[in-house]
Design a protein that fits this description.
- The chain crosses the membrane at residues 236-257.
- Component of the dolichol-phosphate mannose (DPM) synthase complex.
- It comes from Pycnoporus cinnabarinus.
- This is Dolichol-phosphate mannosyltransferase subunit 1.
- With 277 residues, the protein is an alpha/beta fold.
- The chain has a single domain (6-220), classed as Spore Coat Polysaccharide Biosynthesis Protein SpsA, Chain A, CATH 3.90.550.10.
- The protein contains eight helices and seven strands, in the order E-H-E-H-E-H-E-H-E-H-E-H-H-E-H.
- It has a seven-stranded mixed beta sheet with strand order 3-2-1-4-6-5-7, with helices on both faces.
- The chain is elongated, with a radius of gyration of 25 Å.
- It starts with 5 loop residues before the first strand and ends with a helix.
Amino acid sequence: MSSINYSVVVPAFRENGNIRPLVTRIFRALSQVNSPVNPNEVEVIIVDDNSRDGSVETVEALRREGYNVRIIVRTTERGLSSAVVRGFREAQGDNMLCMDADLQHPPEYVPAMLAALSPNKQFVLGTRYAKGVEIDEGWPLYRRVISSGARMLALPLTSASDPMSGFFGIRKETFLKARQLNSDGFKIALDLLVKCNIPSEAIAEVPFSFGVRAEGESKLTGKVMLRYLEQLAELYWYRFSGLIVFAALLVLVLFVLMARALLNSYGGLDGKAQSKY
């Protein structure tokens, strides 16, 4: 049996209706003649937040059919980012990919995403901002505005073109270097790009178009958007705090120098005035 070199992590909550088509499509794509990745070297890990919707039974049935898939059911934790971190920590492969369970990240792109990872390319990102890609096709206007706005707010933090897509991969060695990961954040890819300090030359990008959600409901809520803004604030401080402190000290020094200059100037005038009397 081949060793596992690749792990596909799928955070899920009440996504049972999507698990079977997701897993079968992933392995079907990997089994194509032109696939750059051997399907026998790939595992799929479903990280489920105690949905109790039949997901466990679906995964067990898929395993009996020969698919290398397993499920981790979390009973005390919740949240997409922490689910991804849990999956990455338990992954057997040195090359790890995260994708949504709702089929909006088309499984047919998995082989190309996995193959893009290498010792020189520590991070791979599925991007919607490439030539010929229909950005957020089929989304309502408000979702497009939110998506574009969120991306623009993240631009000063990373050179990656689309850190908001959620379809990304990372090398295990790079992931283990991350410190102070925000498991409560909305976008774990952005957190990893910043906290792992991944340079632009180590990022590979694979153009893709969003698919259409097949089952379940969108997880985008006002609370989620607020958490994203909180995450951005934390990341800006993490990335630029040194510059902020330096700028504050520089302003303080300039203030002191200006104050001394003014005092000396007034003191000199006083001295001259006193010498006249």
